[in-house]
Amino acid sequence: MSYSGQQLLNQLLQYGMDAQPAGELPAEITGIAPLEIAQPTELSFVSQTKHLHKVAASQAGLLLIKPEWLEQLNKPLPALLVPDPYAAFAILAQFFYPLPRHASGIHPQAVVNRGAQIASSAVIGPFVVIEAGAVIGEDVVISSHSRIATGAKVGARSRIDNNVSILHNCEVGEDCHIKSGAVIGGDGFGFAPYQGRWLKIPQIGRVLIGNRVSIGSNTCIDRGALNDTIIGDDCIIDNLVHIAHNVEVGQGTAMAGQVGIAGSTKIGAYCVFAGQAGAVGHVTIADKTTFMARGAPASDIAESGVYSGFPAIPHTQWQKTKIQTRKLTELAQRVKQLEKNVAKFSTDD
């Protein structure tokens, strides 16, 4: 599938992005590629000023770029001037490479309880299990070997990849994507110590997932012990993330791989957890807070900002501490030498 430069411009405008043409737009663009390898019929983009020098050697036929960067180019190219080239790339990538369409219907090797409600436009793959009381919305796609348990709900246009478990009474919103191996609504880690053994605490809450949420492969989101575990709209959660029981995650929050959130933590909107970051249980985190890799708070975070380390401290303070830590060996040697000098002077006296 190919599109003209004008069609791509129109697509951005229809999405609501402020876009303007620069130069003569090409008649045919066949795909998207990085600057270094883009061909004359391909679109590319510059999202950071440090990449502007690559434009001179690029053969790209059309460029996504900020208007203020255009005059810095040594080699002008036909361009679409946009305020956010990376977001424009995302929009046009979806336009060029839409998800494959599936014929609606229930595969004959799926196991579907008569008490389940399945929209006629839904796609149910082979070896899928859908239990009594489950509700599957319009245009939902559920791939092979996944399980939608009793009373669970999947909202319209959501995609459930292979080997996903959405357990009893949990709810997934509209336009979500849950990737292979994820478990939504497994029991939380709830046990009470009693006379040298652990008593299992029934986990009677649910997991409620908002709209437009992406959940990565082999991620586990545990059901609440009493209250529900809640994931807000527009959250993006990477592979191998664990979210414990009764956690609340605010709208638009992002979690990279191997993040771990302990139980009953309340996370604000638009927070960011870098790889292997996390939080201890029962803390509250302010909106728009970022934790760098392996950062984790041990108490409430009341002010938004960037934090590092454990217990998490403001990132600038953590950087100063790391610089000082690197000098500890040198400092120890200096102290040892001073002690020798003091001992020598004492002997001389």
Automatic annotation (TrEMBL):
<comment type="subunit">
    <text>Homotrimer.</text>
</comment>
<keyword id="KW-0443">Lipid metabolism</keyword>
<dbReference type="GO" id="GO:0103118">
    <property type="term" value="F:UDP-3-O-[(3R)-3-hydroxyacyl]-glucosamine N-acyltransferase activity"/>
</dbReference>
<feature type="coiled-coil region">
    <location>
        <begin position="321"/>
        <end position="348"/>
    </location>
</feature>
<comment type="similarity">
    <text>Belongs to the transferase hexapeptide repeat family. LpxD subfamily.</text>
</comment>
<dbReference type="GO" id="GO:0016410">
    <property type="term" value="F:N-acyltransferase activity"/>
</dbReference>
<dbReference type="InterPro" id="IPR011004">
    <property type="entry name" value="Trimer_LpxA-like_sf"/>
</dbReference>
<keyword id="KW-0441">Lipid A biosynthesis</keyword>
<dbReference type="InterPro" id="IPR020573">
    <property type="entry name" value="UDP_GlcNAc_AcTrfase_non-rep"/>
</dbReference>
<comment type="function">
    <text>Catalyzes the N-acylation of UDP-3-O-acylglucosamine using 3-hydroxyacyl-ACP as the acyl donor. Is involved in the biosynthesis of lipid A, a phosphorylated glycolipid that anchors the lipopolysaccharide to the outer membrane of the cell.</text>
</comment>
<dbReference type="InterPro" id="IPR056729">
    <property type="entry name" value="GMPPB_C"/>
</dbReference>
<keyword id="KW-0175">Coiled coil</keyword>
<keyword id="KW-0808">Transferase</keyword>
<keyword id="KW-0677">Repeat</keyword>
<feature type="active site" description="Proton acceptor">
    <location>
        <position position="245"/>
    </location>
</feature>
<feature type="domain" description="Mannose-1-phosphate guanyltransferase C-terminal">
    <location>
        <begin position="107"/>
        <end position="187"/>
    </location>
</feature>
<protein>
    <recommendedName>
        <fullName>UDP-3-O-acylglucosamine N-acyltransferase</fullName>
        <ecNumber>2.3.1.191</ecNumber>
    </recommendedName>
</protein>
<keyword id="KW-0012">Acyltransferase</keyword>
<dbReference type="GO" id="GO:0009245">
    <property type="term" value="P:lipid A biosynthetic process"/>
</dbReference>
<dbReference type="InterPro" id="IPR007691">
    <property type="entry name" value="LpxD"/>
</dbReference>
<keyword id="KW-0444">Lipid biosynthesis</keyword>
<comment type="pathway">
    <text>Bacterial outer membrane biogenesis; LPS lipid A biosynthesis.</text>
</comment>
<dbReference type="Pfam" id="PF04613">
    <property type="entry name" value="LpxD"/>
</dbReference>
<dbReference type="GO" id="GO:0016020">
    <property type="term" value="C:membrane"/>
</dbReference>
<feature type="domain" description="UDP-3-O-[3-hydroxymyristoyl] glucosamine N-acyltransferase non-repeat region">
    <location>
        <begin position="28"/>
        <end position="95"/>
    </location>
</feature>
<dbReference type="Pfam" id="PF25087">
    <property type="entry name" value="GMPPB_C"/>
</dbReference>
